[in-house]
Amino acid sequence: QVCPGLRTPQVPIWLCSLCSRHGVLFSTNSLLLSCWRAERLFHLHFYSGQQEQTKPTHLTIDTHSHHWEEEQSEDPSSPGKRRPPVEMAIRTKWAGATVRWNGTDPFF
């Protein structure tokens, strides 16, 4: 028997399979489950268990950012325009969101 807490989590959590690796995205803000206003600017934690992750990863998600606020690059295929798979996974839920890694180098 699965306890109700596992069937209905108290905080948002997503299991991710990215590039044949697994990770967990989660937030400690339970309002993300019930209040759309909480989705304006919020924080997610990412844990992959990979050797590349040397410290906790704390991401800031801004769903109301504008494309001109991002760094501009002349060529869309240049490395500056490529996004880590974690960011692309986040954008499947929040299209166009800006993801800040807060001092952590994107490792995934």
UniProtKB/TrEMBL annotation:
One Pfam family named in its UniProt record: MINDY-3_4_CD
Domain Deubiquitinating enzyme MINDY-3/4 conserved as annotated: residue spans: 5-103
Region (Disordered): 63-86
The enzyme's E.C. designation: 3.4.19.12
GO molecular function: cysteine-type deubiquitinase activity; K48-linked deubiquitinase activity
GO biological process, one term: proteolysis
Top-level EC class: hydrolase
Catalytic activity: Thiol-dependent hydrolysis of ester, thioester, amide, peptide and isopeptide bonds formed by the C-terminal Gly of ubiquitin (a 76-residue protein attached to proteins as an intracellular targeting signal)
Domain of life: Eukaryota
Keywords: Hydrolase, Protease, Thiol protease, Ubl conjugation pathway
Stored PANTHER family: INACTIVE UBIQUITIN CARBOXYL-TERMINAL HYDROLASE MINDY-4B, UBIQUITIN CARBOXYL-TERMINAL HYDROLASE MINDY-4-RELATED
Family: Belongs to the MINDY deubiquitinase family. FAM188 subfamily.
Role according to the record: Hydrolase that can remove 'Lys-48'-linked conjugated ubiquitin from proteins.
Protein name as catalogued: Ubiquitin carboxyl-terminal hydrolase MINDY
Annotated source species: Psilopogon haemacephalus (coppersmith barbet)
